[in-house]
Amino acid sequence: MNETAELKYLKKVGRKIREHRIKSGLTQEDVENFGVSWKHYQKIEGGHTNTTIKILYLLSKAFKCNPKDFLP
């Protein structure tokens, strides 16, 4: 099965977000304290769903980084 360029990009973004979460010492469940459902967060980190600028902003506040840091 060939992945589309879009799916590959979503997976790259998910990996970058995961790296920042781990550096922050947070679990996937911890992101709920910042207004993001952990179930939805799992899909973002896994590259299985697109997300919004609002959620990227919330995650950047949780991980103490800039939203652009999530881009490959």
List the helices and strands and how they pair.
Elements (H helix, E strand, L loop, with lengths): L4 H20 L13 H8 L7 H11 L9
The CATH topology is given as: 434 Repressor (Amino-terminal Domain)
- How does the overall form come out from the CA principal axes? globular
Helix share bin: 40-55%
Radius of gyration: 11 Å
From the structure above, extract its key features.
0% strand, 434 Repressor (Amino-terminal Domain), 3 helices, globular, 54% helix, mainly alpha
What report would you give on this structure?
- The protein has a single domain, classed as Orthogonal Bundle (434 Repressor (Amino-terminal Domain)), CATH 1.10.260.
- It is globular and about 35 Å long.
- It is built from 3 helices and no strands.
- The chain has helices spanning 5-24, 38-45, 53-63.
- It is mainly alpha-helical and 72 residues long.
- The chain is 54% helix and 0% strand.
Task: Write a brief caption for the model.
This protein has 72 residues and is mainly α. The protein is 54% helix and 0% strand.
